[in-house]
Amino acid sequence: MGQCTSCTEEDQEIQIEESQNASKDQYWKTPVNKLTKKFIPDDKKTEEALGDVEEQINPKRVQLAFSKKITEKYHKRKTVASIDDWIPSQKEEPESFQEYAESDYNKVSTESHTVYIQPLDTSMTKEFLSTCQKYCLAYFYPLPVVISKFRDITKSKIRNRKCLQGFVQYHSGDIMKRAKKWIPDDAYCMICILNMDLYPQDSWNFVYGQAYLWERTGVFSFARYNPEFYGEDHGMSGEELRELVMFRSIGTMVHEIGHMFGMGHCVYYECAMNGSMSAEEADKQPMQLCPICLRKLWHNIGFDPLERYQALVEASRVSSSFDETKGWYSKIVRHLKKIYAKEVLEEPFTKDYENNINETSTVKKQS
Ligand SMILES: [Zn+2]
Ligand SMILES: [Zn+2]
């Protein structure tokens, strides 16, 4: 059982030390701080973790998307800002591409390749769910992503209690047991989502979420991504708050689904698969996958990287909180097109999964 991202026994207040937070944008140019040096694999190990792309990746257009030129221009190496960050606190072993490829991860197949999102409480609007779906369709391109019919947790007999903040909290293990019965045959995985808080066992204050990788099910709560959960005086307008919660929720969702694809936490680059100890640390993570994690996903799904990036540019129009992400994807799309124009290349390479034609073409048509 993978117990995800930010399972903390206490509500932790993390202080980021400003002084140690400077070198983030200039990893390649300036010396990194001591913590980063101590906890982050060096350049050589990072290169090895990606593997010999020229030797190992075919077709050429995919190989070029993983080239050093692209990697160095668009991806920042991971830095550690504080000893309380996820990496120093958890001391997880790095997972290279090779280790992933040799692991017993759940493989996408023609029989089971649909990602299901199961909403568990009626406070999630249709608009919110459709935004989640649109983004996941591009992120896990070209797999179909389906929003399952609402199941109302408040009407179930799932164990619950009140959390410290006074809200109702549901037992995540109980939800997972039910989810095993709900998961459709053609599912690659099913992620249950809710705006109510979760706890994994009596002695824990709360948990953000949990996933059973081998049962292909997971559950995740967005409750704590809303500053109002903690009674914070956030000073945001309703619209700003909605955008923030949306951005955090989708970031969490793609991270969690990434775990369902068998990917561990990333320690190499600033990456959507970085672990985080708090919403604050999670806020600093990019929505994008680094080359190592992207290679893992590509290895499992098989997509044309340019097509996926194009789909992500379109999907990033869902909300203005994605503008920065959209800018990043747009740049890499332009750059890849330029590189491809100079080379004699094969046709776009995307595995053909039946049933997904209509859904992915909705994303594609807009581009
Ligand atoms: Zn995680
Ligand atoms: Zn990564």
What would you say this structure looks like, in words?
This protein has 367 residues and is α/β, with parallel strands linked by helices. The chain contains 15 helices and eight strands. It has helices at residues 34-39, 43-50, 53-56, 60-65, 68-74, 86-90, 97-102, 126-139, 172-182, 238-260, 279-283, 291-301, 305-315, 323-342, 357-365, and strands at 114-119, 145-147, 160-162, 168-171, 187-194, 197-199, 209-212, 217-221. The protein has a five-stranded mixed sheet, with helices on both faces. Strand 3 and strand 4 (168-171) form a beta hairpin. Helix 8 (126-139) packs across helix 10 and helix 13 (305-315) runs antiparallel to helix 14. The longest helix is centred in the last third of the chain and has 23 residues, at 238-260. The two termini are 39 Å apart. One zinc ion is lined by residues 4-5, 255, 259, 265, 275. One zinc ion (ZN) is lined by residues 266, 268-269, 271, 273, 289-290, 292-293. It comes from Euplotes crassus. This is Archaemetzincin-2.
Annotate the secondary structure layout.
Elements: H1 34-39, H2 43-50, H3 53-56, H4 60-65, H5 68-74, H6 86-90, H7 97-102, E1 114-119, H8 126-139, E2 145-147, E3 160-162, E4 168-171, H9 172-182, E5 187-194, E6 197-199, E7 209-212, E8 217-221, H10 238-260, H11 279-283, H12 291-301, H13 305-315, H14 323-342, H15 357-365
Parallel strand pairs: 1-2, 1-5, 4-6, 5-8
Antiparallel strand pairs: 3-4, 7-8
Helix pairs in contact: 8-10, 8-13, 13-14
The structure holds zinc ion (2 copies).
